[in-house]
Specification:
alpha/beta; Rossmann fold; 7 strands; 34% helix; binds guanosine-5'-triphosphate; binds magnesium ion
Length: 198
Amino acid sequence: MITQTDFLKAAFFKSISNISQISNKSLPEVAFAGRSNVGKSSLLNALFQRKNLVKTSSTPGKTQLINYFDVNNKFFCVDLPGYGYAKISKDKKATWQNMIESFLTKNKQLKMIYLLVDSRHELMKSDEEMIAWMKYCNLNFTLILSKIDKISKNELAHKVTLVKSYSDKNTLSFSFKNMNLVNTLRNQIITDLKSMHM
Ligand SMILES: Nc1nc2c(ncn2[C@@H]2O[C@H](COP(=O)(O)OP(=O)(O)OP(=O)(O)O)[C@@H](O)[C@H]2O)c(=O)[nH]1
Ligand SMILES: [Mg+2]
């Protein structure tokens, strides 16, 4: 059984740049995807209640490898490099995209993709493409509106409605400043892993 306190015992496991290096431990995995700078790495630090276990930055493009975090030997949280970052070469962008797409489609241990979208903006074209692609590939995903401490309650209500038009599934809201939301997300991950028979 996975509990809230397991998240507090998370540790860095490994970084990979190629699908052939995915974990051979038979633990379930959940992955965090989304545009550069949307707050994926910060969200993981909040889940783990650690300040700097996962490297974050105010400049986009911080996470460049697929980073595995071992959650008390029960499952892995995987931090993915962000997409939609303009300031990298076309070659590198294509390599990242390949790396992310093959990770998400070929990884049998992967139970859920949490796709973060910035609550301050409309969905970007790259977000829409990502959602369409995940649907096309029949992948399990959940949308998370990030950084909601930066918007008003009214704006949030509007964004929740907007995001619902892209996915009929439950949408989550998140801010690393709100412990209730951190707890809710932990519980959601626990429920998602349970419902995938793990
Ligand atoms: N106010 C606020 N700022 C946040 C929140 N989450 C992240 N940030 C800030 O947003 C910036 C980017 O956060 P990261 O967690 O590094 O974003 P990322 O999605 O991992 O970015 P890449 O690794 O480049 O893909 C940092 O300056 C964070 O402090 C949040 O919930 N609220
Ligand atoms: Mg990151």
